[in-house]
Automatic annotation (TrEMBL):
Annotated PANTHER family: D-XYLOSE-PROTON SYMPORTER-LIKE 2 (PTHR48023:SF4)
Subcellular localization(s) per the UniProt record: Cell membrane
Transmembrane segments: 20-40, 52-76, 88-107, 113-134, 146-168, 188-207, 265-291, 311-330, 337-361, 373-399, 411-431, 437-458
Species whose genome carries this gene: Agrilutibacter terrestris
Domain Major facilitator superfamily (MFS) profile: 22-465
Name of the molecule in the record: D-xylose-proton symporter
PROSITE patterns, alphabetized: MFS, SUGAR_TRANSPORT_1, SUGAR_TRANSPORT_2
């Protein structure tokens, strides 16, 4: 078997092409995560017009999937511990396919909301299981890069959804115009998500179960076979040592519960609080406002609908490119330095956006930005995406997949991911109302959270670069 990396010194482990391929297959759940959550971007105005929704109502219609994601993230850990990581990924794929079909054929706003919530459950499950699975099959010396595949898949999903939104709207002459089979373009924006969901479902049938789950279930022969196959770990002594390390880290108990997360820091272990705050800050800096509402935002400040779609696609391309840079740097520079740079950069660029919108005139659909503030806001928004994509986008998923001790990883990650989805819901649901107060206020608030995230990283986040999962402590 060919290796894509040299063996980690002293462990006998290799980063094989096999581990790259199965990590990529698992990360496809992240693609669906990005696609399913961002696809609403191109449909916001059309859905609002079709169902006659207020700002608060459209905010809930856009964000309701995130409530489902919180539920899916919460239950994914226990399901993965009981039935396995791979089986849980298959269930997530089925939920996402059914949701895409139902949302595209929705006959009313509440019907749409129900199907979005169903899809959200699948997204939440995928958001927890993919980083867990990738961390558990990866050698420590490349785990950061392979873990970053989750975020790369997310941003590629966002890009694909925004590109398909733009193409469908362009083909129909507008998102609210009929396209094929008499269905409006915004409905096809949801329906096309069936394809990647089915592809994901097929691919996960070809990936092996996590060796850590197999050891926890007492299936040592299968775990040994997976370690040989995935890590090319053929040295008998190294293989026995690895199995012993996994057994030792899991021996206290296999099915962790919330009781195991209890600790001296306000009722929880410090590492759990760090995971929760990483998740919350990732959302409270407002990134998903860019990916859920940007077409509406740029349309509202003077760009045409077609140009607004194009700007949004370009922003998603920027996000993909900087995520590739982050993947190249994560195992060289580490997680904490990238988070620090990202927080500082986001604080500056969000602050600049807040300043830009103090010069806005009009309100609602009549809002406009005089020159040079419109272009400045556009540049600042893309610079903000660069800093996020280089840091908080991929680094949070890498850390959440690896920072918890083995004995609590699944339940701790479920708690952290649920907190992330709830934070995402709060930011997404409140943005239309905040925008009516003033975009300057909204972006100023996100800038303040970026400053707080910088303080948090410097004071609380510890580096995990190069550490084995069995070395992680409470």
């Amino acid at each position: 078997m060919s290796s894509i990396e040299t063996a980690a010194e002293g462990t006998g482990q290799h980063a094989t092409m096999r581990v790259l391929l199965i990590s990529a297959a698992a990360a496809l759940g992240g693609f669906l995560f990005g696609f399913d959550t961002a696809v609403i971007n191109g449909a916001v105005d059309a859905v609002r017009g079709s169902f006659g929704l207020s700002a608060a109502a459209i905010g809930f219609a856009v964000s309701c999937a995130l409530l489902g994601s919180a539920v899916g993230a919460w239950y994914a850990g226990p399901l993965a511990d009981r039935y396995g990581r791979v089986q849980t990924m298959r269930v997530a794929a089925a939920l996402l396919a059914v949701s895409a079909l139902g949302a595209g054929l929705a006959f009313g706003v509440w019907d749409l909301i129900v199907w979005r919530v169903v899809g959200g459950i699948g997204v939440g499950m995928a958001s927890v299981i993919a980083p867990t699975y990738i961390a558990e099959v990866s050698p420590a010396h490349v785990r950061g890069r392979l873990g970053s595949l989750q975020q790369l898949a997310i941003v590629l999903g966002i890009f694909a959804s925004l590109l398909s939104d733009a193409w469908l709207a362009g083909a129909a002459g507008g998102a609210s115009k009929p396209l094929w089979l008499g269905l409006e373009a915004w409905r096809w924006m949801f329906l096309v998500a069936v394809v990647p969901a089915l592809v994901y479902g097929v691919l996960v049938f070809g990936v092996p179960e996590s060796p850590r789950h197999l050891v926890a279930k007492g299936r040592l022969a299968e775990a040994r076979a997976v370690l040989i196959d995935v890590l090319d770990l053929r040295n008998a002594a190294a293989l026995d040592a690895k199995l012993h390390d996994i057994e030792h880290s899991l021996r206290r108990e296999y099915r962790p519960t919330l009781r195991d997360l209890r600790g001296p820091a306000a009722g929880l272990l410090p590492v759990v609080w760090i995971g929760i705050l990483l998740s919350v800050f990732q959302q409270f800096v407002g990134i998903n406002v860019i990916f859920y509402y940007s077409s509406t935002l740029w349309h509202s400040v003077g760009f045409s609908e077609a140009d607004s779609f194009s700007i949004t696609v370009v922003t998603s391309i920027v996000n993909v490119l900087v995520t590739l840079v982050a993947i190249a740097l994560v195992d060289r520079l580490g997680r904490k330095p990238l988070l620090t740079v990202g927080s500082a950069g986001m604080a500056v660029t969000l602050g600049l956006m807040a300043v830009c919108f103090t010069h806005a005139t009009g309100s609602g659909a009549q809002l406009s930005l005089p020159e040079p503030w419109g272009v400045t806001a556009l540049v600042a928004a893309n610079a903000y995406v660069v800093f996020f994509g280089l840091s908080w986008g991929p680094m949070v998923w890498v850390l959440l997949g690896e920072m918890f001790p083995n004995r609590i990883r699944a339940i701790a990650l479920a708690v952290a991911a649920s907190a992330q989805w709830l934070a995402n819901f709060l930011i997404t649901a409140t943005f239309p109302s905040l925008a009516e107060i003033g975009l300057s206020f909204a972006y100023g608030l996100y800038a303040a959270f970026a400053v707080l995230s910088l303080v948090f990283v410097v004071r609380a986040v510890r580096e995990t670069k190069g550490m084995e999962l069995e070395e992680m402590r409470d």
